[in-house]
Amino acid sequence: MQSALPPETGMAGRFPRVLNVVLAGYSIMEDGEIALPEFWGARRINDAGVTLIKRFEGLHLTPYLCPGGIRSIGYGHTRTVRAGMRITPEQAEQLLNEDLRMAERTVSRLVGVPLNGNQFSALVSFVFNVGAANFSNSTLLRLLNRGWYDQVPAQLMRWNRVAGEAMGGLTRRRAAEAALWNEPEREEAQQAAETASSAG
Description:
Elements: E1 18-23, E2 26-29, E3 34-35, H1 47-57, E4 60-65, E5 71-74, H2 89-110, H3 117-130, H4 132-136, H5 139-145, H6 152-157, E6 161-162, E7 165-166, H7 168-182, H8 186-199
Antiparallel strand pairs: 1-2, 2-3, 4-5, 6-7
Helix pairs in contact: 1-3, 1-7, 2-3, 3-7
């Protein structure tokens, strides 16, 4: 995971660790938050978002240091990686899914305005990369919760630095997230086309 340092705080956020406790489908987080099981209708990242994350994280079956200096494995997984660890592609997918569930819950919990699927997925990718704490304290989130949707792409682009240096990979990732944010969902695009056709 390329961990961008926030423009506001300069500290990389970390997701809370999932305790090894599962009761009747619940996951109890280290901070006491209860994560609902998937079948309760939790919102999920779409395929475009997953593809974006995989493209920029890459698949690593042994530990590596991301540009932010954080030991990672698989598709940017950091919580349980240790020296000498080796995983399979299937295990990398499982770790990715666990990390995505955390990012999805963060976006669902903190964003107080409606999002379409592409907007939600762009933010999940962003949170996956920068961490829940950074997102919760960001200007991006404050502006979005005021309803200033058009400010999100520019705010995303601010998060492209590590130790004060702009990183090409992070700049490209932020641009891809901004493009996904701006891309209408299929139904929205179809409705827009039908409206334009009717107006003509």
